[in-house]
Design brief:
Helix content: over 70%
Number of strands: 0
Radius of gyration: 16 Å
Structural class: mainly alpha
Number of domains: 1
Low-confidence stretches: 69-78
Number of helices: 8
Length: about 150
């Protein structure tokens, strides 16, 4: 599980903030541990772990949304002081505005999964994933960055 700790922490950072991140992180690894006996090897272990992680994160997010009024996933105390912090904040804000499905695709793409691997995780056909990611990239990247 050590190999997946960093990507799962990044996933948790997008879906939650503060102490909730640690809770989600533990919830994900507990779900992976409990689901491991059912792993059949139909997909790679990597895509299976991402699938469990994203399902837990989406389920928790839906549960939290029902439990409290809609509020920003961003911590209001964030005070970005460097260009990298501003880019990260802009990305987090863009992710927050996305539908859960687009957010999942984007996070998996940012983690370096191929369209085929994303299909294994989400069940969305690889060709559809590629089209949707192309649209998402056009929305995320400034016009001058997309021409290079």
């Amino acid at each position: 599980m050590a190999a997946y700790a960093a990507p799962i922490k990044r996933l948790c950072a997008v879906y939650t903030s503060g102490g909730d991140r640690d809770d989600l992180f533990q919830e994900i690894f507990l779900a992976i541990w409990r689901s491991l006996p059912g792993f059949r090897g139909d997909a790679s272990l990597r895509t299976w772990v991402y699938r469990v992680a994203h399902n837990v994160a989406l389920t928790r997010q839906a549960r939290d949304r029902r439990r409290r009024s809609r509020e920003s996933a961003l911590d209001d105390t964030v005070q970005p002081t460097q260009a990298a912090d501003l880019r990260q904040l802009a990305l987090r804000e863009a992710l927050e505005r996305m539908s859960p499905a687009d957010r999942s695709l984007t996070l998996l793409w940012l983690e370096g999964l191929s369209a085929s691997e994303i299909e294994d995780v989400t069940g969305i056909k690889a060709a559809t994933v590629a089209v949707r990611l192309s649209r998402i990239r056009r929305q995320l990247l400034p016009p001058e960055a997309s021409h290079g």
